[in-house]
Design a protein that fits this description.
Order of helices and strands: HEEEEEEEE
Number of helices: 1
Strand content: over 45%
Number of strands: 8
Shape: globular
Distance between the termini: 25 Å
Helix content: 10-25%
Structural class: mainly beta
Largest sheet: 8 strands, antiparallel, barrel
């Protein structure tokens, strides 16, 4: 059994309080399970962080069948992202709080390598996230529901 020092306990307590506060204030900051809108199955874990008032989200884990490549590359991405591992890839960026939602950013679909405008809305007291990617106007897109993991 490992012995915990007071500093370890403070770090753990601070981490728990931060997670509780994010949940309580409806913040999208945290770890989310991305649910495929077509199959209803989990696709990935995405960690959303905030820096200077902007949200970004990075893939931490993929849920893939055992016969699939467990560390695929973003072959259809363009520019610097082409050929990069999907795990660790930033797929959400530039989202800013706008009333009850976060908008003005973009989302990357690693399956087709395309960037879409994006907005998201925290729902059910911070337990669910409605993530919408679209071209042009929000009505011309698709939504996914993400479930909070932490």
């Amino acid at each position: 059994m490992t012995q915990r020092t007071p500093i370890h306990c403070l770090v753990l307590l601070g981490s728990l309080l931060t997670s509780a506060c994010a949940l309580a204030d409806g913040s999208p900051v945290g770890l989310w399970k991305n649910i495929d809108d077509a199959t209803g199955k989990p696709k990935a874990l995405v960690r959303i962080t905030e820096s200077n008032g902007e949200l970004s989200g990075r893939i931490e884990k993929l849920f893939r069948a055992p016969d699939q490549d467990q560390n695929p590359l973003c072959e259809k991405c363009e520019g610097d992202l082409k050929g990069q591992p999907i795990i660790g890839l930033t797929i959400l960026s530039g989202l800013k709080k706008d009333g009850d939602e976060y908008s003005g950013g973009q989302i990357l679909d690693p399956a087709n390598g395309k960037l879409y405008k994006s907005k998201l809305t925290v729902q059910e007291d911070g337990r669910k996230l409605n993530v919408r990617g679209y071209v042009g106007m929000p009505m011309l897109g698709r939504s996914q529901t993400w479930i909070r993991e932490d």
